[in-house]
Write a structure and sequence with these properties.
This protein is mostly helical and 142 residues long. It contains 6 helices and 2 strands, in the order αβαβαααα. The chain has one domain. It is globular and about 65 Å long.
Length: 142
């Protein structure tokens, strides 16, 4: 007897793609930067969204110009915990050195676009992240 394949609901596919997108976005950001851009640590690295992903469009959630690498301490304690004026100034300095004004404006513009991503759009985004990560890893170290 041949079993019929169950049709996977659209919401399940979208959830899986978003999870995969989050994973590859984080891997890409951390591979690109290689260290905490505030303190220089290479331990316990995390990818941090410049524009908070939950409060803005999904168009920027996986955008390669919407993040930087921070260590656990700088990310969760310094930025999300009790950010001082000095830390925030350093963080803004990092973002300004990492991205051009045009790149920053593009992310802000994207954040105002429609929030929903459909399966084909999300698939393309995830495939691009995977490709970009592979290119980063294949690039000779300087």
């Amino acid at each position: 007897m041949i079993k019929k394949k169950k049709k996977v609901p659209k919401q399940v596919i979208l959830r899986r793609l978003k999870k995969k997108g989050d994973k590859y976005w984080s891997l890409y950001i951390r591979a690109r930067d290689g260290k905490c851009l505030i303190c220089g640590s290479t331990k316990s690295l995390q990818a941090h969204h410049a524009l908070v992903r939950k409060k803005v469009s999904n168009q920027t959630r996986f955008h390669k110009n919407n993040g930087c690498t921070l260590c656990y301490i700088c990310h969760l304690i310094e930025i999300h915990g009790n950010a001082t004026k000095t830390i925030l100034e350093k963080y803004l300095e990092v973002l300004n050195s990492l991205y051009t004004k045009e790149q920053q404006e593009e992310v802000v513009r994207k954040s105002k676009e429609k929030n929903k991503l459909d399966i084909p759009e999300l698939t393309i985004i995830v495939e691009d992240l995977i490709k970009s990560l592979k290119e980063l890893k294949d690039k000779p170290k300087q």
